[in-house]
Every structure is written in C-alpha cells, then in structure tokens.
Design a protein that fits this description.
The structure holds two protein chains of two kinds.
Chain A (H helix, E strand, L loop, with lengths): L2 H37 L15 H11 L10 H19 L16 H9 L1 H12 L3 H32 L4 H6 L19 H15 L11 H4 L9 H25 L20 H19 L7 H29 L2
Helix pairs in contact in A: 1-2, 1-10, 2-10, 3-4, 3-5, 3-10, 5-6, 6-8, 6-12, 8-10, 8-12, 10-11
Chain B lengths: L1 H7 L3 E6 L11 E7 L2 E8 L7 H7 L17 H16 L5 H29 L4 H21 L8 E2 L2 E2 L5 H26 L2 H7 L7 H7 L4 H4 L7 H4 L20 H25 L19 E9 L2 E9 L5 E7 L1 H12 L5 H10 L4 H5 L1
Antiparallel strand pairs in B: 1-2, 2-3, 4-5, 6-7, 7-8
C-alpha cells in the first residue's frame, strides 16, 4: 500500500477516535446533568443553547481559559502527567473497539488484552494524581482507588476469560461474530453451552461500575468524606481531563459489555424491526447508550458504599464466585459446547 | 478489630475536617488524628462563628433580644422563639390566649417537620445519595411557603410575641397545613422505599456509630440522639409546656443506639408532628391572639428562671437571671447540638472515616447553634 495514503488513513482514524472520545465525554456530562435534573425534578442545564445543549462547550471553554494552578509543594512532573494518563489510555482503547463489522480502527487479534492493558493504566493516574497533590484527602483517596481497582480487576479479568472460553477468541470482532443473531444468542443469556451467562453478566456489570469509580462505588471521590478525592488540588484542564477520562471510561466499559455480552452490532429482534436491519453500528450505539443511561440512573439512586463493604464484596463474593464460574463454564464448554 | 489495628501501626497523621468541608455543613472544624482510614482521635474545634448571643442577651432589653432566637438554630427557629417567649412570659406572669398557644404549636411543629426534612436530605447526601435531598426540599418548600404567609419570613422567624403571636392566622393557612400533611403522608412511603429500605443505606447505618444511653447521659445529649439510644425523654411529655398535654402523640424510641435508630426516630417524629398538627387544627378555638395587658417595658421580678422546650434537635433551655431591670443579668442558652457534638469525640474513636461521618450526620448538627 502507498505510504502516503496509509499515513492519511491513520490520521483520519486518529482524528475520528479522539473526536468520538471527546464528544462522548463532553456530552455524557450533559446527559448526566440533564438526567440528574429530571430524576430530581429540576430542569438541569437549560440556559446555554436549546435544552442546554451547548453547555459542554461552555464548560470546556471555561475550563480551558482558567489558570492552571500548581500548588506549592506538589510533585510537579507527576502532578502534570496524572491527568494526561487519565485521558490518553481511554482514547487508546477506542482504537480496538469494533463498532460494527467493518468499523474498527485496528482489528487486533488480542484486542481484549490490549483493552485491559490500557485500562489498568487508569489506576496509575489516580494514584499519581493523589500522591503528587500532597494533600491528605487526595492521598487517602489514592489509597482507596488503588485497593478498589486491584480488588475489582481480578474478577473482571476472570469473567472475561469465561467469555473468551465460550467464544473461543480474544479478538473482539470474533467474540461478536460468535453471538450472531437475535438476543437469545448473546452471551448474557445461557447460550453456547454456557448456562452461567446471566451470573457472569451481572457480576461483570458490578465490577465495571467499580472499575470506573462510579456511584455507588465512587469512593475515590467521595465528596462528603474526601472533598473531591484525588483531584482536590486540580483546577482548569487538569480537572477537565480527569473528568473526561472518567466519562470516556464509562463509554469504554459500556462498549465492552455490549461486545462481550450484548451481541455487539446485532439487532435483538431482526425479524420484528426489519427496516433497521439485522446488524449495524446503530444497534451497537443504542445498546451502549442504554447501558450508560443505566449507569447514570444508578448513580442518582443509590447512596455510596463504604470501602470495607466494597472490598468484602470483591474478595469474599465476586472473586470466589467468578473463579467458580470460570471452572463451571470451562467444564460446560468442554462437555456440552 | 480497631484497637488492634491502631496499635500495630504508628504512621499517624492529622487531618483538619473543616472549617470548610462538605460534610460539616457549616464552619465546624474537627481535628482528626488518623491511622490510615481509622480515626484515632477526633477533637471538635469550635468558635468559628461565635457571635456572643448570650452577652447580647445581657445588653438588650427582653424584647430586643427576641430576634436573636431565630439566628441560633436557623432550621427550627420557631422552637427557639417559643422557648424564649415562654420563659419571659413565665417571668413576667403574662397569660397567653388559647388560640395563640394553638397557633404556636402548629407553626412550631411545621417548623420541626421542615427541619427534619432538611436533615433527612442532608444526611443522605453525606452518605453519597444526592437525589433524596432535592425530593425533601420540594416538600420543605411547601412548609416554607406556608410559614412565610403567616410569619413573613422563610428561615429566621421572629413570629411569637410576649403574650401571643404577631398576627392571627387565616383559615387558608390551616387548610394549607392540612393539604400539606395529606401530601406528605402520601410521599412518606416513597421516602421509605427510596431511602429507608435501601440495602446500601442500611448497611451503612445499622450497627454503625453506637451511642449508649450512658454516653448520652455523660455528655448531656438530648433529642433524637437520646431517644435513639432507648431513653424515652421528650420535654413535650416530661416537662409539658404550652398545650402539648392536651394533644395525643407518641414519642418514638429506638433501643439500638446506632445511626439507623437516630434516623428512624426522626422519620417517625415527622409522622408524629403531622398527628399533632392535625389535632391542633381540629381543636383550635377562636379568639384573640395577643394577651390584653402586656407591659411595654418588661421588668421581671428579681430571680433565677429556667425554661426548656423540645427543639428539633433536642432540649433547648434558657436560664435567665433577672435583677429587676429591663435587661437580663445573666442569660445562659443551652443548645442541644453542642452536647450532641460533645459525644462525637468518644463515639468516633476507632471508627472508619466514612462511618464517623455517617455518625456525625446522624447527630444533626447546626453549627450556628453550637457556637451561638
């Protein structure tokens, strides 16, 4: 292939992915605020643009025009790098996500591995941000975030292995192909000889909430305890990047669940709504945004758990169950699949 | 668990919780000595908004000091108004017309509901649930509108006068109160479904922050904190004042002594307040709302006077010493949350930060009232 075209193609991919990540992150903030507003019987943002739709742009302009204050006594390099580490891996992960059969920036054979490799960098950014801030609340928050992420990455990975066993591939496209068809073919239901699909799905969802530091597991930024947690000392775009990183991670987590459990780009009822087709990127996005909406709904409904009960949930329930789940699924796949 | 964890590790650090902190709801500062996430010692540091209310009471005439009462506990200001006017009426021997007594009870209990609703929202906010706060505010707004229509104020009321009330209430106010009670009765199941029955909330409150009756006695804790520890003490029942003896209501008591018990006491009190208001509205007589002969300049007989009322957060009492002049010789205000906060230091030892903040929230602190 011609080198010039290749470079242009790569740049286009890059722009599209960064644009997708940034727009999603910005507009999820709007969705969250508007959604929270309606859940709480207020209006939410409504002044900037129709239905407050330009609010994210105004927020972005505000954050970017603010002075980046670096408090005295912070570990300056770490303090500067931490917000970037929150955002960059999130953008990188988008490279591997197949939004439809052909809409994927890089179709990697070990896509799942790449996602988890980059996702684990996220905890580093929280740790670095909290530690470098030299703020006691931020340090407590960083310690919480690390123990939380370590505890929940294990069951998350174990349950991913279950799905890999069922689908027989680490390639995200292959995993979706293995679920081709209407919704009873997808991994979230007992399918492909895996009777434990629903349990895996629910546990994976809980772990995903915890991994993205979302309520009710948002211990890292428990505002009534730790003010703002690891980003207490951040203002301006430093804070903005942490914020966008968080929302980008929500998008990634939801996309991952759609790929692993909800049949990716396949229509749930291909015969019932034929005009939308039996597969397409819109199905993928629809499922993804429904999941994101569920996450928003959960955040504005539940109070926060404590660190101890959170860790107990992982070490005493999720990890043993996910290991058992893995063994049982492996057996089922071996003897029935 | 905790004491062992504390002794093994000596990497302790101090954290200043406040005076600017989202969980302290005001300018309270608590100096925490922490060991990781465990609290070794928590020392409340007061005085950030001390305004010398007691000294003001000694430098103003009895009537001039009345507006100060709304500035102590701004969330249940009418209870404080009531305590003070009843004290001065006791001192000067002023008889209050019956209608005024009923109006006082109705408005005070409405104010108590609004205070408990705000506490309910703020407490769940402390635990990380944001939505109930706004639901509670929707209801509280109705109370504020109703009270505004008779008192002219929404927060720092100064409605009662020596010998009665500033003005009479209209029938619209009374029917508005009944309509509000009907509305709140319909909404209480929603609050219980959304919050009280929530698994996470119960996990965070049950068996967390136990406060024994002995500890309450030691620090003089009153109100829902005391009643959540199994002591049936309510000034409205034990040292009745106004027309409370004529009304039929229960005092909710829970024996667990944990944060959930204090939560349940307040939620049940909202129900009882509604009962009280309904009965008072049914019984309210017609007639004047001000006593006939109230002296322009009150000069009580020399002596030592004391009066206590049940405010939303506990026993509010005033001790006033008069030397026969138009000002108090000594004015001592006893505010409930000052005592309730005092037990925090002992009760929070060895607790996790998150649990300690749940405990602090369940004490229902109002800082201007602690500092006075």
């Amino acid at each position: 292939m011609d080198l010039g075209i290749n470079v242009i193609e790569m740049l286009l991919y890059l722009v599209a992915i960064i644009g997708f990540a940034a727009i999603n992150a910005a507009y999820l903030v709007w969705v969250e605020r508007k959604g929270a507003g309606h859940i709480q019987r207020r209006t939410g943002p409504k002044e900037v643009g129709p239905y407050g739709l330009l609010q994210p742009l105004a927020d972005g302009a505000k954050l970017m025009s603010k002075q980046l204050i670096i408090p005295a006594g912070v570990d300056k390099p770490l303090f500067m790098v931490a917000p970037l580490l929150a955002m960059v891996p999130a953008v990188m992960i988008f490279v591997t996500i197949p939004f439809s059969e052909n809409l994927v920036a890089r179709d990697i054979n070990i896509g799942l591995l790449v996602i988890f490799a980059f996702a684990s960098v996220n905890v580093l950014s929280l740790l670095m941000g909290g530690w470098a801030s030299r703020n006691k609340y931020a340090v407590i928050s960083a310690a919480r975030a690390v123990s939380q992420n370590v505890a929940y990455e294990i069951p998350l990975l174990v349950m991913t292995i279950t799905i890999v066993l069922v689908s027989g591939s680490l390639n995200l496209r292959e995993i979706v192909f293995s679920q081709a068809g209407a919704f009873w073919h997808w991994n979230w239901l007992p399918t492909n000889g895996n009777f434990l699909g629903p349990i895996t799905f629910i546990m994976f969802f809980i772990c995903y909430l915890a991994e993205t530091n979302r309520a009710p597991f948002d211990l890292g930024e428990a505002e009534s305890e730790l003010i703002a947690g690891f980003h207490t000392e951040y203002g301006s775009m430093g804070f903005g990047l942490f914020f966008m990183g968080e929302y980008a991670n929500i998008v990634i987590g939801s996309a991952l669940i759609v790929i692993l459990f909800l049949g990716g780009w396949y229509s749930p009822f291909p015969e019932v709504v034929p005009f939308l087709g039996s597969a397409g990127v819109w199905w993928f996005l629809l499922k993804m945004y429904l999941l994101i909406w569920l996450v928003v709904l959960i955040r504005w409904t539940f109070p926060r758990v404590t660190l101890w009960s959170l860790l107990n949930l992982s070490w005493k329930i999720l990890i043993p169950f996910s290991l058992f789940n893995l063994l049982a699924s492996a057996g089922l796949v071996k003897f029935l699949g | 668990m905790s004491s062992q964890a504390l002794s093994q590790n000596n990497e302790r650090f101090e954290v200043n919780l406040g005076p600017q902190h989202p969980a302290t709801h005001g300018v309270l500062r608590v100096k925490l000595l922490m060991d990781g996430e465990y609290i070794v010692d928590a020392e409340p540091v007061l005085g950030y908004i001390h305004r010398m209310h007691e000294l003001m009471g000694e430098n103003r005439t009895w009537a001039q000091f009345l507006p100060n009462m709304g500035r102590l506990d701004y969330l249940s200001a009418l209870s404080y108004n009531l305590g003070y006017v009843e004290l001065v009426e006791k001192m000067a021997g002023i008889e209050v017309p019956e209608r005024a007594e009923y109006i006082r009870v109705i408005t005070t209990e409405m104010n108590r509901i609004s205070s408990h609703l705000l506490w309910f929202g703020a407490f769940v906010l402390d635990l990380g649930g944001f939505t109930p706060l706004l639901y509670a505010f929707t209801d509280r707004e109705e109370i504020l509108d109703l009270l505004e229509s008779v008192t002219g104020a929404r927060l720092t009321y100064c409605y009662y006068r020596f010998g009665g009330c500033y003005n009479d209430v209209e029938d619209e106010f009374l029917s508005g109160c009944l309509a509000f009670i009907k509305r709140l009765r319909a909404r209480m199941p929603m609050y219980h479904n959304l919050v009280t029955k929530n698994v996470i909330l119960r996990q965070r409150l049950e068996r967390v922050g136990p406060v024994s009756a002995e500890m309450c006695r030691k620090y003089g804790a009153t109100g829902p904190v005391l009643r959540g520890s199994g002591v049936n003490y309510d000034v409205r029942k034990n040292e009745p004042y106004s027309i409370y003896p004529e009304l039929d209501f229960d005092v909710p008591v829970y024996h667990e002594g944990d944060s959930m018990a204090r939560y349940m006491v307040r939620m049940d009190e909202i129900e009882q307040c509604m009962r009280i208001i309904e009965q008072a509205i049914a019984k309210i007589p017609s007639g004047p709302v001000m006593a006939e002969k109230v002296p322009k300049m009150i000069k009580p007989e020399p002596g030592d006077y004391y009066h206590a009322v049940e405010a939303a957060r506990g026993t509010f009492s005033i001790r006033a010493v008069s030397d026969g002049k138009n000002q108090a010789y000594r004015m001592k205000l006893r505010s409930p949350t000052f005592s309730n906060l005092s037990l925090f230091q002992e009760a929070s030892k060895g607790m996790l930060l998150a649990d300690a903040l749940a405990l602090m929230g369940s004490l229902d602190l109002v800082i201007p009232e602690i500092d006075r």
